[in-house]
Design goal:
The protein is of the alpha/beta class and 354 residues long. The protein is built from 12 helices and 12 strands. The chain has 2 domains: 184 residues, Aldehyde Dehydrogenase, Chain A, domain 1 (3-Layer(aba) Sandwich); 141 residues, Aldehyde Dehydrogenase, Chain A, domain 2.
Amino acid sequence: MTLQSRLSTLHQLAAHLKAGEDEFLTALQTRTEFNNQWFTLENQQASLNAIVEEFLDEEKLNAWLSRYKIIPVAGEGFVPQPGPNGEGQKTVGLVLAGNIPLVGFHDILCVYVAGHKAMLKLSSKDEYVLPYLLKLLARFDEAAADYFNIVEKLEGYDAVIATGSNNSARYFETYFRNVPHIIRKNRNAVAVLSGTETEEEMRALGHDVFQYFGLGCRNVSKLYVPEGYDLDPLLHVFHEWKMMQNHTKWKNNFDYNYALTTLNKGSFHLTGPLMVIENEAITSRIGTLHFEYYTDKAALATELNARAEEIQLVVHQPGFLETSLPTFAFGAAQRPGLADYADGVDTFEFLLGV
């Protein structure tokens, strides 16, 4: 397949998903929710909509690829693509995470657009919808089927992209040390508040905190607030997510952490389905959100830069803080673009060089 034919299948996939008439897809989403209660139908659809609008949009795909000169530019040449007989084509092993729905789609798209073959080790938490999306690509062009292979064990790969916990990352680093690789560890997003946020901005921040039950690496798990900040207005807005207490898994985690904190005589603020706890740690437990006071923006930026290995991105008002980390506006954390690479590592550039 040529680059243009691969892009064509992605455009057709976007059109198919936008139509919203695929009953089999809906059935698979229902099966997924039954198998994994964290993956509600609402959250699965939110993830799918983000993929269609941010990853499969034709203009956004072309703009993304233009960064790499894959599409010839006058006087500049272009990056060679694997040949029609497979010359230059590599097999890239993908170990996919299962923390939020379809979280590995961006890696798959990058491998496919780069012209390589993807050998997929799916997460048991998300094993129904993703294979169907790949079958849809093959329906639009049967040659696409040769680009994907779902396996139980990775073997015969030329490069690897693996995502997991900090513990599994140590294993991955050793196991895949002899091939080009990208290994991703635990990260979370943080939010820096100025104290001048509007109610609308606070509500948007709530999406960054609560969407996907806070399980994504792009979910805000900690707030930095100015010294003397009054948390009450924010807690009042966050109370709008009180319906999350109706979700069994969230409620069980919340009750456990509430009991644990109470027994340890820890102090906290309570709102709806959430405990807000003063804590220096970036990562917070399900049903909890950490916060910390700051007095100097420049010192805070220095601290965040020093903890870059723990932080996926920073959410704040536009222009409020200067940091080397990726920054997003309130409410945009879970809507990354094609060039918003996990851990700041350019996946596509890596694939062009394997």
